[in-house]
Amino acid sequence: MTGPLRIAVVYPDLLGTYGDGGNGLILARRAQWRGYEVELVQAPSDAALPEADVYCLGGGEDGPQVRAARTLTDDGMLVRRVAEGAVVLAVCAGYQVVGRAFPGADGGAHEGVGLLDITTVKGTGPRAVGELVAEVDGNGVEGAPSLPTVTGFENHGGRTTLGPDAVPLGQVSVGVGNGDGSGTEGAWAGRVVGTYLHGPVLARNPALADVLLAWALGVEEAELPDIDDGAATGLRQERLEAAGIKLDGGRQEGRRLGRRRKQ
Amino acid sequence: MRFGLARLTTRTVNATSRRLGRGRGTVAGGRAGLKVDPRLLQHLSRGRSVALVSGTNGKTTTTRLLTVALGVGGEPVVSNETGSNMPPGHVAALVAAARGTQAVLEVDEIYLPRVLAATHATTVLLLNLSRDQLDRTNEVRMVAGRWRAALAAAPHTVVVANADDPLVAWGAGAAAQVLWVAAGSRWQLDAVGCPSCEGRIAFDGEGAWWCTADCGLTRPVPLATLDYPDTGGASDTGAASDAGASPQDASTVTSRGAWADGRTYDINLRLPGRFNHANALMAAVAAEACGIDAGEALAAMADVEHVAGRFTIREFGDVRARLMLAKNPAGWSELLEMVAGDDGPVVVSINARIADGADPSWLWDVPFERLGPRTVVATGDRFRDLSVRLQYAGVAHVAEADPVTAVMLAATTGDGTAPGATDRTVDVIGNYTAFDDLLGARP
After folding, report:
1. Is position A110 annotated as part of the catalytic site?
2. Does residue A92 carry a catalytic annotation?
3. B49-301 belongs to which homologous superfamily?
4. Taking the CA atoms of chain B, what radius of gyration do you get in angstroms?
5. B66 vs chain A: nearest CA distance in angstroms?
6. Which of A86, B18, B99, B347 is most deeply packed, by most CB within 10 A?
């Protein structure tokens, strides 16, 4: 990589409802603390999307979500940069936007950007609101992110189904996640990761931040110098306990309850 | 008949619940009364002039300011002063007042259409709209749309609305009579998309805004404008941070309300902050619409010291703390701007109980970076979320789960000197229930 690591927060004016802009900040700080030069860009929807190494998309309301998808498709930069190896973290409405189709305010289908082989429809039940916990097991796929339990807060009405070209990020142990009956949460393909986890997700899951950084910097995760994540560790523990996950006394994070991993 | 029974029920339950020492005895009675007669609020509103105050931030304070302003006329004014801002609270307030007594009611923004239809309010004051308690899924744009429909159906109501907030301007825009006030709006992140069409709102940084898609939505011409002195990032609370100064002299800033017809009035308040001067100007315009002289209304508001405990000074042991409330990113932005010039210790307390909203991810929308080099203590039920946020904001801080201990800790580490050696006021900012906890804490 030449030049600074460029991180773009995509359309904070449209996809900035749930504090997800924090994800860009977290990636930037974690790279800076390790001595990398970083450029963090807030990319508004009324300007051409800048060239970047990492794109972060956040949650948003129905109307702005439709506008974001259309603008990203017309702009073309995101699709081009992903083909060139850029990393994408897409959360909630942003997750739906990078898929093939998602519902608008009227429930009708709108075309997504198509970076992930996922399709979202309007759910029939109540909105999924609350703590969401999932186990990431890589699904046996080569290059899969290796992560401890992921934790966050979900708030969405959509139900997402994965096609054959997308792999679930994890298996839900508490909460709804994709909500299509598969018991999965999120999806990834190549260097594009989508999830329903807010918090923001990288605040509660610094290991995921480091996976994304390692991809973007072209280094092994193990090569990244340690960061004092004491505050995040305490937060993870608190939220997992609040979600009803029993933690073993001595261990940082214990065994999970609920759905057992299928072998 | 049913009305009489409902009124009696409300009074009885309220009296009983007060006698039993359960809460402040306002909501339970109202709820019981509404069960007996669902139209109780309609009946109780008949024959009186009712003013409603709504918006995301500043409702409770502005309700108090308008109540004081209308009191200038010499007639009694009834209000839901405990901040119970849904129909049971309104019923409880009105049932306690003599027939015909004018009323000023704080109204939850979601409930405004319902309460407007029930009370046939003569005046509605609309402050601002921004994201708040997102897990309740009431998207602000939807709230503005409901206001718009409700006000269009109330042609006899005079609306006083903030012209600087595009969501409010659109929400109030369909009303028959609107008095626009340029009250300012620091938080613009929720108003970037045009509420009226698919376009975007452009801000020129000098007060003007318009929809770039030419749907016609643009900042209305204001009847009155707030002229608040630029404090250049320095504290506008003046003496409050100086050792020994009386904290009751909190606000030393004089702003000005300028009317389009050339009149101007100085605004001096004991309540600090630009946003409170904006609240006062809007209350003055509403008071004028009710036949009160705006200058006299503002003079009366000057004596309001603190409302529902906000900005109140509390002693915890020998530590003096100024308690401040901020519930959402817009409120936090205003408060952090207000305290930006202070350099004393700060305690930030965050809860995520039902009244606060269960998802504190909005912490990442708050510019905590502004706390910079001050001594900061993170506390409240969710101090761990806050602690992670502060770490990435580059704000060195101490984390302490117990709020009262946190205040003591802030005082003792504030000067880097021995415990108890502080003579400064600790700024304490909490969100809804975190603020309430400290207000009610018995150290």
Report:
1. no
2. yes
3. Mur-like, catalytic domain (3.40.1190.10)
4. 22
5. 32
6. B347
